[in-house]
């Protein structure tokens, strides 16, 4: 039986900020990864197939085969305090609490722990009357932001406002541009800068999901802030799942092509990920770096996510303040 979470007291006023990320397994083991994937892949926002079709495939093929394989990948990036996504999200929430002392800042995950619904109820039971939910997704997608809204809207007795996206927020754009500039000042610039975003099925964009358009707008703003010419960067999409077409161009195909064209050093940044996680540290910085070298490249230089950098925390704190002020 689930034990009710203790109330989270709201220190100053009765408003809380709840930072929400995707979620991650509790341990780098097949059992923990299976629990996480089962929750994730049962979400209709993520996989909308009828359950008659999807559940047998999920329970008898995907979960048993994928969980042990993915657990090994998590084991390769696991940090002392846990999964990178969990560690960095908690640190970012702490950095926000320091900047917003009059609000109770908490963090939660859409899948896994700390669970979004439970955390919202704990805030309510601790005296919070309203909460600003800040999903750590700069670009809106039905597969991510809307799924957070589904859960948040179902909690009764607390007023919930959700930040829909911040893909063109000036502070966030400046923070991403500043981190790229800082990396290149220290390590030198590769021949090309690849902006790699998590993909979604093309079908969803065709049905009106604004995600691709927001990724494009974000990248145009970041490239402009860096003063880059159009031939100095590319936008690609990573982390495909399943067989249908996802947003293109694909990151791995592009890296193969670039290596084939003779490029030796490519810088890769992932501005759609607020904090480092499996998809950046393993897929990009390990797997895709290996792929690039295998096709003749010398080095894929991965530029870390903003994580709990002061510029990131400042930008998000300012977004929270403005949202609460109704601006
Ligand atoms: C099944 C379809 C998936 C969609 C649609 C999807 C969209 C999507 N995901 C993120 C951010 C992250 N995804 C992460 C891991 C991950 N994503 C999927 C599948 C879909 N994502 C899976 C099955 C997994 C788990 C790993 C695996 O089995 O391959 C992560 C990292 C989590 C971690 O623990 O580190 C993030 C972050 C976005 C932003 C997005 C749509 C825009
Ligand atoms: Fe099922
Ligand atoms: Fe994903």
TrEMBL record:
GO terms for biological process: heme biosynthetic process. Keywords: Cytoplasm, Heme biosynthesis, Iron, Lyase, Metal-binding, Porphyrin biosynthesis. Catalyzes the ferrous insertion into protoporphyrin IX. Its main location: cytoplasm. It comes from Luteimonas salinisoli. Pfam families: Ferrochelatase (PF00762). InterPro entries: Ferrochelatase, Ferrochelatase_AS, Ferrochelatase_C, Ferrochelatase_N. This is Ferrochelatase. GO terms for molecular function: ferrochelatase activity; metal ion binding. The gene is hemH. It comes from the Bacteria. It is found in: Cytoplasm. It catalyses: heme b + 2 H(+) = protoporphyrin IX + Fe(2+); Fe-coproporphyrin III + 2 H(+) = coproporphyrin III + Fe(2+). Belongs to the ferrochelatase family. GO terms for cellular component: cytoplasm.
């Amino acid at each position: 039986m689930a034990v009710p979470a203790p109330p989270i007291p709201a220190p100053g006023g009765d408003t809380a900020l709840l930072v929400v990320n995707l979620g991650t397994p509790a341990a780098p083991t097949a059992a923990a990864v299976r629990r996480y994937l089962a929750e994730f892949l049962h979400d209709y926002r993520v996989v909308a197939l009828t359950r008659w079709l999807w559940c047998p495939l999920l329970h008898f093929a995907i979960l048993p085969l994928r969980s042990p394989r993915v657990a090994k990948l998590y084991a390769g990036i696991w940090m002392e305090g846990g999964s990178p996504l969990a560690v960095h999200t908690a640190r970012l929430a702490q950095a926000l609490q320091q900047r917003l002392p009059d609000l109770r800042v908490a963090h939660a995950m859409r899948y896994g722990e700390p669970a979004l619904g439970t955390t919202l109820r704990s805030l309510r039971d601790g005296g919070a009357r309203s909460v600003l939910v800040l999903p750590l997704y700069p670009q809106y997608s039905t597969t991510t932001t809307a799924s957070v809204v589904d859960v948040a809207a179902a909690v009764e007795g607390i007023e919930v406002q959700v930040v829909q996206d911040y893909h063109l927020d000036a502070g966030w754009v400046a923070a991403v541009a500043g981190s790229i500039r800082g990396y290149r000042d220290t390590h030198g610039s590769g021949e090309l800068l690849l902006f790699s975003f998590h993909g979604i099925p093309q079908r969803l964009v065709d049905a009106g999901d604004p995600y691709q358009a927001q990724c494009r707008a974000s990248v145009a703003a970041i490239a402009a802030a860096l003063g880059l010419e159009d031939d100095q960067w590319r936008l690609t999409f990573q982390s495909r799942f399943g067989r249908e077409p996802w947003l293109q161009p694909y990151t791995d195909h592009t890296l193969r092509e670039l290596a084939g064209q003779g490029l030796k050093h490519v810088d890769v940044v992932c501005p759609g990920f607020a904090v480092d996680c499996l998809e950046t540290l393993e897929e990009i910085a390990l797997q895709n770096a290996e792929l690039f070298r295998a096709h003749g490249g010398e080095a894929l230089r991965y530029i870390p996510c903003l994580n709990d950098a002061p510029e990131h925390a400042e930008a998000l704190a300012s977004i929270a303040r403005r949202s609460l002020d109704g601006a």
